[in-house]
UniProtKB/TrEMBL annotation:
Classification lineage: Bacteria, Bacillati, Actinomycetota, Actinomycetes, Streptosporangiales
Keyword Heme: yes
UniProt-listed InterPro entries: Cyt_P450 (IPR001128), Cyt_P450_B (IPR002397), Cyt_P450_sf (IPR036396)
Family, per entry: Belongs to the cytochrome P450 family.
Pfam families from the UniProt entry: p450
GO MF term set: cholest-4-en-3-one 26-monooxygenase activity; heme binding; iron ion binding; steroid hydroxylase activity
Signal peptide: none
Annotated GO biological process: cholesterol catabolic process
Keyword Cell membrane applies: no
Region (Disordered) location: 1-20
Keyword vocabulary terms for this entry: Heme, Iron, Metal-binding, Monooxygenase, Oxidoreductase
Protein name as catalogued: Cytochrome P450
Length: 435
């Protein structure tokens, strides 16, 4: 397999099977993602019912996107098999869409999510220290204190928008706390993250002037954050402390450490991977518990017993990350299709999480569901979400704080959904509680 000038790969098949166009489904067109969630899920059910994966064409954008198109993996078994088999289903050149062109990786480096072993395994060994039970236990009190402060502020100000007042500040502050970013620098970080993620997730076509402008804002925000993190990394190299950045930039017992550039890439990844995901799960969670009061009563009847299952069901039902992609390194058969080296597949977690072959009544939100082998944190394999236990801890702490201190907490209107085919996001959610 060879890279072409846009970062795509040469080789691969021209589709000889059913195409999205033939079915009247276009997963590439943002108009599809603008439709109500139920309609999209119905189309994914149609795709799942077919014998083999369907091909979707992508437009080519010179110097930016190869426009090779991809096969949609929508069955649970196919998503699991592809995730497990990383030698064949590679995360290079990129697991994200659109695939960043090589010049972008040259400037900013490659995040681990877009890497294969051995480079990926080396980074994962180093950054794993951020997510050990010991490290999580260390920040648990701080996460609890943050949740308390955020709910204090809701009580002071009165409820307006759950995303703005609760979900967004909580998640961002947790990551800043982990990285040791001082409180006074956090509003700046938030503004940069908003600019950085405005483009991510394929919102619209790269060919339009508006998205090129967004891309510029996105790149500038990455540069701004890099400066901040590299300064922090340098300071911790000179004077190590008991914090995470010190642990990452100074050698572990095996002599491995992150370079300052790698630290910058890792921080970007944490901000993007960890920020929107948990925040969207919180917002969807409040809305779901409002729409399903019997599930909420069940949860509050025995919070400690039920919260673990509730979080897994939320992640299954919501699928906060809609998809990641892979590129085949060799010819391979999966799900009734003979793929060729260079073919691309997109793993639609949200479709796999509603597969009736695995989940009984998949469209029912049931916090007692067991077993619940969802792929919301990714399929089993080397890229399984590193932050899953952190996300679980945060959600457990924040829902407890919210439900115990704000009686009658509920959403009071329809969520405003983010137009994205990557984050299943909510940008605004009106809410209230009984005083
Ligand atoms: C409900 C919350 C979350 C969801 C649904 C989620 C989902 C995912 C998914 C689907 C992947 C797999 C990527 C792939 O297969 O290519 C992933 C990877 C990753 N996640 Fe999460 N995530 C969540 C929270 C977090 C948090 C809180 C953090 C950190 C602060 C985080 C950090 C990461 C990292 C670093 C990776 C890359 C792992 C690798 O490539 O080895 N995630 N996540």
């Amino acid at each position: 397999m060879t890279l072409d000038s846009t970062g795509g790969t040469t080789g691969g098949t021209t589709p000889d099977t059913t195409t999205g166009a033939a079915l009247g489904i276009d997963l590439v067109d943002m108009a599809f993602w603008d439709r109500p969630p139920q309609e999209r899920l119905a189309d994914f059910a149609r795709l799942r019912a077919l014998e083999s994966p369907v091909y979707f064409a992508e437009p080519r954008v010179p110097f930016v996107r190869a426009g090779k198109g991809f096969y949609a993996l929508v069955k649970h078994a196919d998503v699991v098999a592809a995730s497990r088999n990383a030698k064949v289903f590679s995360s290079e050149p990129a697991a994200t869409s659109p695939e960043p062109p090589p010049w972008l990786a040259k400037i900013f480096g490659t995040p681990m999510v877009n890497m294969d072993d051995p480079g990926h395994a080396r980074l994962r060994r180093i950054v794993f220290r951020a997510f050990t039970p010991k490290m999580l236990a260390k920040i648990e009190d701080e996460v609890g204190a943050l949740a308390t402060r955020i709910v204090d502020r809701v009580v002071e100000e009165g409820p307006r928008d759950f995303v703005e007042q609760v979900a967004a500040p909580f998640q961002l502050n947790v990551i800043c706390a982990m990285m040791g970013i001082p409180e006074k620098a956090r509003p700046y970080v938030l503004s940069r993250v908003d600019a950085m993620t405005e483009y991510s997730g394929v919102r619209g076509s790269l060919a339009s002037p508006r998205t090129l402008w967004l891309l510029y804002g996105n790149l500038k925000a990455i540069v701004d954050l890099r400066r901040l993190v590299v300064r922090l990394g340098k300071a911790r190299r000179e004077k190590p402390g008991d914090d995470l950045v010190s642990a990452l930039v100074n050698a572990n017992p095996d002599g491995e450490r992150l370079s300052l550039a790698e630290l910058g890439s890792f921080f970007d990844l944490l901000l993007v991977a960890g920020n929107e995901t948990t925040r969207n799960t919180l917002a969807h969670g409040l809305h779901l518990f409002t729409e399903h009061p019997e599930q909420r009563d069940l949860l509050l009847g025995d919070y400690d017993e039920r919260i673990g299952g509730a979080i897994e069901e939320l992640v299954r039902y919501v699928s906060p990350i809609i998809q990641f992609r892979r590129t085949l390194t060799t010819d391979h058969e999966l799900g009734g299709h003979a793929f060729k080296a260079g073919d691309k597949v997109v793993l639609f977690y949200l479709a796999a999480n509603r597969d009736p072959e695995v989940f009984k009544d998949p469209d029912v939100f049931d916090i007692t569901r067991s077993p619940n082998p969802h792929v919301g944190f990714g399929g089993p394999g080397p890229h399984l979400c590193l932050g899953a236990n952190l996300a679980r801890m945060e959600l457990k702490i924040m829902f407890r704080e919210l439900f115990t201190r704000l009686p009658g907490l509920r959403s009071t209107g329809d969520p405003t959904y983010l137009l994205s085919n990557f984050d299943n996001g909510i940008t605004r959610l009106p809410f209230a509680y009984s005083r």
